[in-house]
Amino acid sequence: MKTSASERTDTKVFTDPTDLPEQIEASLSVPVTGVKKRPKVCICGIGASAMAGEIMSDFADAYSDVPISVVRGTELPKWVDGSTAVIAMSYSGETPETLNLYDQAMLRGCDVICITSGGELMERALNNGSTLISMPPGLLPRNALGYMLGYTASVFEEMEICASRTELASLLPSIRSFRDSITNDENNNQALDIANSIMGKTPVIYSLVNLRAAAIRWKMQISENSRTIAFCGTIPEFSHNEIVGWAEDSASDEFIPIILADDDSIDVLKYMTRTLSGVLESSGIRPYEFRAKGSNDLEKNLISIILGDFVSFYLAHLKGVYPGEIRLELGDGGRREFN
What we know:
The protein is an alpha/beta fold. The protein has helices at 20-28, 48-61, 96-107, 119-128, 145-158, 164-170, 172-184, 190-198, 212-226, 242-248, 267-282, 297-319; strands at residues 9-11, 40-44, 68-71, 84-90, 111-116, 131-134, 202-208, 231-235, 255-261, 288-291, 325-327.
């Protein structure tokens, strides 16, 4: 008998966004061994389990000549071969897409590193002798981002891609400070202000390309934690198409744009960001703008992500939903969080 989503719910341990720095610190303290230097890297994952790959590969692109690609699907690119390091990431270890990619990578003779808390991926890694990095079990995948980030950074540094582990460790004081600034100031809580602005509207998160990972995370967290449809896009792409819809579609007042800006961007991107805000305001739409500050794009993404995680957490409470709930629909075509 099929059980509907409304009839059954499962819950896992939900942690609020306050422990991201502590997760990063804990994972960075774990030695990573058995990782070989390779000229190409392919990261495989879906949803929250791919997020760390997006963040760390964006950081590495600015410092390394090793090409890194993130695959969020079921088929490896043709260029993935025996000279490629494949990082298979699945918190649950049960994500079908990632398991499929793992099998393809093994058939092609790739060096495969598995980052997981258990499940079938761990079993296959143990049986096949793949490098295995174990995460603490029992969390929702989306609440394990700090562990995934730390382990991915360590893998990158061991592979001599870039000093990602060293850099991530150096950022811990600043991201802790930003986290604490949200939780300690009840009268000036930016995350709560944004959550109140989102209530009753559909958020669309726009970012510069260097903050793309943060915008994706905002969309994912708002959708999953608060059961609110959310979308994301990038600048300058916005200026070449979506700007017309915002300016001329009467339905645009049902949406709320959130802009993740960067004051360190080049002048043309600063101009496009100002133009975006101006067009929206002239159409009677008031965007919410957050200016990410940091020493590099990694710090800016992490700070933006912490803010977005809090926004999704507060929005869930404003809507009266529990952000740790996983709704299941069993039977053929059923859906479940596996990432």
